[in-house]
Design goal:
Elements (H helix, E strand, L loop, with lengths): L1 E8 L3 E5 L8 E12 L7 E8 L17 E9 L11 E5 L8 E7 L7 E11 L2 H20 L1
Antiparallel strand pairs: 1-8, 2-7, 3-8, 4-5, 4-7, 5-6
């Protein structure tokens, strides 16, 4: 089964998507992640949307694949020139990791610093055994703890 989430994030904003269950036996894997500027065809924009396993203390446009809590990134460069608008690139990279906790999506407009961006996420639901659920929970807790020590 596929669950979908969509929303609008303003610049420097973070949304919390609730996925966790009481027993942790429902896992998720990202199958699609995309974004589109709030006002396409009107303004130049450079958007960075990121999905994390943990709440972020700051929102920025830096992409660090060494961060274990980073699940996905979507970078959009949008030129408002109508002649070039259909050639605007979007780069999306996501991890195939299975997680069973809440996720957090962040947005940064690195070009002008004030424009919103829409996001769309598809997550595949995966039934987990009790052992798989426990492993996922412990891994998430360890990453939260290690992130807090930095």
């Amino acid at each position: 089964m596929i669950k979908t989430f969509k929303g609008l994030l303003q610049d420097d904003e973070q949304n919390h998507i609730r996925l966790s269950t009481t027993d942790g036996k429902m896992g998720y894997r990202i199958t699609k992640f995309t974004g589109i500027p709030y006002a396409p065809l009107t303004l130049d924009q450079e958007n960075v949307l990121k999905i994390y396993k943990t709440k972020q203390s700051t929102v920025d446009g830096v992409v660090d694949f060494g961060d274990d809590s980073l699940l996905a990134v979507c970078c959009i460069k949008y030129n408002d020139d109508a002649a070039a608008s259909f050639g605007n690139p979007q780069h999306v990279i996501f991890d195939q990791e299975i997680f069973n906790q809440d996720i957090y999506i962040t947005h940064e407009d690195v070009h002008a610093g004030s424009r919103g961006c829409n996001y769309y996420i598809e997550l595949e639901q995966i039934k987990l055994t009790e052992q798989e659920a426990l492993v996922a929970i412990v891994k998430d807790l360890r990453e939260e703890r290690d992130g807090a020590q930095i």
